[in-house]
Amino acid sequence: MKNLIEKIKKAAEFIKQKTSLEPETGILLGTGLGKLAEQIKTDISIPYDIIPGFPQPTVEGHNGRLIIGRLEDTMVIAFQGRFHYYEGYDLFRVTMPVRLMKEMNVKRLFIASAAGGLEPNMRPSELMFINDHINLMGINPLIGPNYDEWGPRFPEMVEPYSRNLINIAYEIALENKIKVHEGTYVAISGPSMETKAETRFLKMIGAKAVGMSTVPEVITAVHSGIEVFATAVITNVNLPDNYKEAPIELILQNAQKGADDLSKIIKGLIKRI
Ligand code: HPA
Fold it and tell me: What does the alpha-carbon distance between residue 101 and residue 220 come to, in Å, rounded to a whole number?
C-alpha cells in the first residue's frame, strides 16, 4: 500500500514542480469526448507518458494528456484519455487520475463517458445525467488495505452524484434547449458488448445506460470527498427486441455529435459554481 501512496505523491510532486496553478475543478473525459479539452486556454499540457507511474491509454479516441488551464475563466485540470479495466489495468491505475486530483486539492469532478442507452425514448448523442449507479464490474477500486488519509474504510454511497450539481445542470440544459435524460448507469467490465439477455437484465434491474467506465472513478472520488457530476453521452441505444450492433466507429461518431451539448453543460456548471 505504501507503494501506491508514494506513486501518487510522486506524480503530484512532478506536476507541482511544473506549475504553481491550483485548480479546484477536475474534468475526466471518456471515449470520443476529448474535444472539450481543446476549449481550455491551456497553461500547461503534460503527456501522460512523462508523468512518473502514470499508465498509457490504449483505446481508440483517447489522447493521453493532462491539461491545466482556464475554462470560462475558471482554473481546471482535465484528463484527456481514460484508463479502462478492459484494457487490462487494475483499478488502482484506472482511478489514478482521481487520486492525483485529490492530492492536488481538487474539490469537484466532472466526468463524461460514452454509454449505451437502454430506453426506447433515447437517441444517439443525447446526454443522460447520472444520478446513481450499479456496479456490475465484479470488482471495486477500494478492495485492499484502506489508507485513512485517502478516505474511510466503508464510504457511504447514499448520494454519489451531487443532486445540487444535477439541478444546476438542468437549468443550463433548459436555457440551451438541450434535451437530457437522467438515471442509473450500470458499469460492466467489457470489452465484449452486452447480449440481448444481458440487456434485458440491465433494464430490469433499473439501469438506463450501460458503460465500461465511470463507476470506479466515482467510487474513488466519493471515497476521497470529491463532489461529482457525471453525464453519459448516449452513443447507441440497445433495445433487446430490436438489437443492433454498435461498432466503435459509430460510438466515436455519436460521442463527437454529443460533445457540443456536453461542452455547454460543463462550461455552464463551471460558471455557476
Ligand atoms: N455498452 C457498453 N458500453 C458502451 C456502450 C454499450 O452499448 N456504448 C458505449 N459504451
Answer: 11
Q: Which residue's alpha carbon is at the smallest distance from atom 9 of ligand 1? A: 115
Q: How far is CA 73 from CA 83, 101, 241, 259, in A?
A: 28, 19, 47, 20
Q: Which amino acid is at 91?
A: L
Q: In which element (H, E) is residue 130 found?
A: strand 127-136
C-alpha 262 to ligand 1 mean position (Å): 18
Topology of domain 22-272, CATH? Rossmann fold (3.40.50)
In this predicted model, what pLDDT tens digit does every residue of 28-59 receive, in sequence order?
998 778 888 889 999 999 999 899 988 876 75
Show the cell assigned to 228.
461529482
Query: What CA–CA distances, in Å, run from 114 to 63, 74, 128, 211, 249?
Result: 16, 25, 10, 7, 12
Nearest CA to ligand 1 atom 3: 211
- In 34-45, which positions are buried (b, 16+ CB within 10 angstroms) versus exposed (e)? bebbeebeeeee
Count Cβ atoms below 10 Å from residue 157 Cβ, excluding itself. Answer: 14
pLDDT, one tens digit per residue, over 112-163 is 999 999 999 999 999 999 999 999 999 999 999 999 999 999 999 999 999 9
Spell out which residues line ligand 1, taking CB within 6 angstroms. Answer: 114-116, 193-194, 210-212, 235-236, 238, 246, 251
Query: Given the DSSP bridges, would you call strands 227-237 and 127-136 parallel, antiparallel or unpaired?
Result: antiparallel
Nearest atom (ligand 1) to Cα of 117: 7
Residue 186's closest CA among 126, 99, 253, 119? Answer: 119
Hey, where are the domains in the chain?
A: 22-272
Q: How far apart are CA 2 and CA 272, in angstroms?
A: 38
